[in-house]
Amino acid sequence: MNNVLNMHGFVLALQMAVSPITISSAAASSTAPTAEQAGLAGRLQGHVSALAGAIGERNVFRPQALHAAADYIRAQWVAQGYQVVTQSYEALGVRSENLEITLPGTDQLDKILLIGAHYDSVQGSPGANDNASGVAALLELSLALSRMKPSCSIRFVAFVNEEPPFFYWGKMGSGVYAKAARAKNDDIRLMISLEMLGYYSDAPHSQRYPPLLGFFYPDRANFIAFVSNLDSRDQLHELVAVFRAHSDFPAESLAAFSFVPGVSWSDHLSFWRENYKAVMVTDTAFYRYAYYHSEQDTPEKLDYIAMARVVSGLQAAVASLAMRQ
Fold first, then answer.
1. What is the DSSP string of 70-131?
2. How many CB atoms lie within 10 A of CB 258?
3. CA dist., res. 301 & res. 200, Å (int)
4. What percent of the chain has pLDDT over 70?
5. Is the backbone of residue 58 left (phi > 0), alpha (psi -120 to 50) or beta?
6. What distance in Å separates the CA atoms of residue 115 and residue 200, rounded to the nearest whole number?
7. What pTM does this model have?
8. Environment class of residue 147 by beta-carbon count within 10 Å: exposed (0-12), middle (13-18) or buried (19+)?
9. Whole-number pLDDT of residue 251
């Protein structure tokens, strides 16, 4: 995720966008983790440690590490029994790969529910939260759903090159992927972007917001956020509803104009540009995480029990949506 925030521009955008913003929230819960969630937390930590610890900073400026991350994801999916499809292209002279697996639908094969996360990290950072946490969730969701027989197809994609210098323009991996999907006329009903899922705090005032939004949301960073543009607000509300139906983990949601800073700052933007519906799931990044885009974004900073509860809720939500599409 990328911070290109200009505060003057942000205030102006927020003043223009505040009327159509849709917000909702859920109360916090103190439910203890189950044994299953504790096991999931351990596996999530293992993935994050492999990507952000053993491999470390991974981008086109460290191509060996970038390729090692792709190989790690590929090996995990092969071990889960999937056939991995690779979309390769060159960026700044470096081979770059989007990786894809598909759980085929039983009676709506052509309809696709897509779950994605980027696996590169920004220069100078090992990228534990941004975005090894999203990749870890992606890997565990594909594992948990691997024996499911969904009505529509579920596609999991690990995107390359989300971070600068590719973010927003150029050879951003999700942009390359979404353009190709539109060219093939892929019927993607919803894209869910997993963007920084690992940091939570119950401390008062641990959550920050852009101007004005703090009046509508809690000041503790103990929730997961669901974010969309206005065109995707129906899909946002449906996703949040099914998440809450299966999880007591606190959830907040926001639907707003895409030019409001933060709303479009991940791979879901690429799908909006191709007229697909898309939602970002995030811990809100730099609005709570002090180690964002720094060398201190390391695996021990993350709350894996909380993250496991989020992933468990997402698993149930995705399974539910895949039977409705």
1. HHHHHHHHHHTTPPPEEEEEEETTEEEEEEEEEE--SSEEEEEEEEEEE----TT---IIII
2. 16
3. 10
4. 90
5. beta
6. 22
7. 0.91
8. exposed
9. 98
